[in-house]
Write a structure and sequence with these properties.
binds adenosine-5'-diphosphate, alpha/beta, about 30% strand, Rossmann fold, 6-stranded mixed sheet, 10 helices, 2 domains
Length: about 290
């Protein structure tokens, strides 16, 4: 059982960008989705929690570990899969995991060998264990990344934009792997992909411009929008006009024409039909407020 408690975290970069604006949140075990558009501040928050950069002010605790003041303690129980998992060109998957296990303090050779074998099997790379990671596909590299993040029984696992660049099959496998990790640890999945959160997370937050603009469960926030989302297929030339007259939360092309979703307490008429709100509606509503 683990709990991550973040209070009033702030970070301004030297160029004046306020990447974290008084971020406070409590996250308990299970899979937590941190959703936000590019530039929202997700990586800044993830890197701060992974002790790779400092905050200007605020506190962050994993159970009783003071993350900001005691980074060495945190690293012992942290599994981190960064946005870009750096690959060691001429090293095999087995060697790479073995090397990281040494870095994480697993000095007993037999124990380490067993652990590495176990992880290679778990991420379905055992057959490829003697091949160079350099030649791996994006999905295979991600699996090496998650395997290394699992070394050392982490209590906090942070995965930053894990599915960007994966094909649908690889993405499914990655999701299954994460869902398998266990319920006793805090897993934070940072992503701009709404489906990642919908498929995996029972709790979530939405971040925009350095602030948390929503936190709760996907189901609760969908309830908030129930009965208020209306859709209509329009002509491409009409998008601007509809944006002026309605609170358009999204427009996307469906079969060659824009399908717009608008937010309205009552039936807007004009050929709109009510639809069940989806997480994408939530996302756009929250970040455009
Ligand atoms: P996200 O992960 O949600 O895309 P980031 O945390 O990477 O967001 O970035 C948040 C904001 O901070 C963006 O405006 C980004 O340009 C800026 N930023 C990120 N890293 C740095 C840095 N090292 N120096 C200056 N600005 C940065």
């Amino acid at each position: 059982m683990a709990t991550l408690k973040i209070e009033n975290l702030n970070k301004v970069y030297p160029n004046g960008v306020k990447a974290l604006d008084n971020v406070s949140i409590e996250i308990s075990n299970g899979m937590f989705g941190l959703l936000g558009p590019n530039g929202a501040g997700k990586s800044s928050l993830m890197r701060t929690l992974a002790t790779l950069q400092e905050a200007d002010s605020g506190t962050a605790f994993l159970n009783d570990i003071d993350i900001l003041n005691n980074p060495l303690e945190l690293r012992k129980v942290l599994g981190y899969l960064p946005q870009e998992f750096g690959v060691y060109p001429k090293i095999t998957a087995e060697q790479l995991l073995d090397h990281i296990a040494i870095l994480k303090g697993i000095t007993n050779n037999k124990e380490r060998k067993e652990l590495v074998n176990y992880l290679l099997q778990k991420v379905n790379l055992y057959e490829q264990r003697s091949k160079s990671v350099k030649g791996f596909s994006g999905g295979m590299k991600q699996r090496v990344g998650i395997a290394q993040a699992l070394i050392g029984n982490p209590q906090l696992i942070i995965v930053d934009e894990p599915t960007a660049g994966l094909d649908p099959g690889e993405r499914n496998r990655f999701h299954n792997l994460l869902a398998d990790v266990g319920q006793d640890v805090v897993i934070i999945l940072s992503t701009h992909i709404v489906d990642d959160v919908r498929e995996l997370c029972s709790n979530m937050a939405i971040m925009n411009l350095g602030q948390l603009v929503y936190q709760g469960s996907p189901n609760n926030v969908l309830q908030e929008l129930k009965g208020k989302v209306w859709q209509k297929s329009i002509e491409r030339t009409q998008v601007a006009e509809y944006q002026k007259n309605y609170q358009v939360i999204s427009d996307k092309m469906v079969a060659g024409n824009p399908l717009i979703h608008v937010l309205s307490e009552s039936n807007p008429g004009d050929g709109f039909e009510q639809v069940e709100p989806n997480l994408e509606d939530v996302f756009f509503t929250k970040i455009n407020n």
